[in-house]
Amino acid sequence: AKAEATNHSRFYIASVDQEIRARKQLEKDLSQALRNHEFHLVYQPQISLQSDRIIGAEALIRWTHPERGMVPPDEFIPLAELNGTIVDIGQWVLDEACRQAASWAAAGMPLRIAVNLSAVQLRQPDIVGTILATLGRHEIPPGRLELEVTETGFMENLEDAVEKLRQLNSAGINIAVDDFGTGYSSLTYLKRMPVQHLKIDKQFVQDLLVNEDDTRIANTIIDLGRSLNLAVIAEGVETQEQEFYLRQRGCQIAQGYHFSRPLLPEAFVKFVEAFHGK
Ligand code: C2E
Ligand code: CA
Ligand code: CA
Ligand code: CA
């Protein structure tokens, strides 16, 4: 039994070692991905449940690794946050999303664009100026941009985050709290934060009609939104039943595979035209 245990731990150490090596390699590849043009953005429509119109799109990053193919953002974003490459990657995302929004506006489709902002980006001293300059460069009115921030990320330096979000918000940029309900959602910070939207995380939407706890959580977020005068966005809406429930419960905006997967720019434009019956 002892020998067996030793073998197990050797095997364990070997596999951990392999994992570390693979991670190091991925980190190295990540630092070159921007230069090698390996990223692109896809856009997922956000639908107003009140007007049945598409009111905007969330920009989501995609990485095509030269050998591994598609690497999901859940895998590389945390890594990019750890080694700081998220700052340059995030800036590229913002720039590309604004460029796209400008080209849609020029084509008579002035949709709002939502961009995920990492807490690491928000910690950069010059982030407010950088974001405003990017909007200016693309001639995008600030009201057309929404920044999605998660609560967990900025908790460790709340004062600094609140101050920057306040500056961005008073310039006209919308702020959404992403993954709402999964972190340390606190009413205290919500009251102090300059926020316009709460996003119900897809984990609560997925089992909305199956799991009573999830139904209660979703209901609570919708009610909280109403009492704080914040519009609520449900992400991960996959069925007609979920859409129906959310609409009659008073959720204002929905996003998910039931309407559309995240799309490449051309497909996105076609989707919007078809949805609006053009
Ligand atoms: P998130 O911001 O919470 O984005 C929602 C995720 O749910 C996206 O996954 C989206 O493709 C997926 N999704 C949308 N509708 C449905 C649905 O109906 N069912 C299911 N099962 N999933 C749905 P994605 O694109 O893989 O992104 C994962 C996460 O990676 C994002 O979660 C976000 O935290 C991060 N991420 C993606 N793009 C960026 C970016 O440009 N910058 C930063 N900082 N993070 C990003
Ligand atoms: Ca998001
Ligand atoms: Ca989420
Ligand atoms: Ca997330």
From TrEMBL:
<feature type="domain" description="EAL">
    <location>
        <begin position="23"/>
        <end position="276"/>
    </location>
</feature>
<protein>
    <submittedName>
        <fullName>GGDEF-domain containing protein</fullName>
    </submittedName>
</protein>
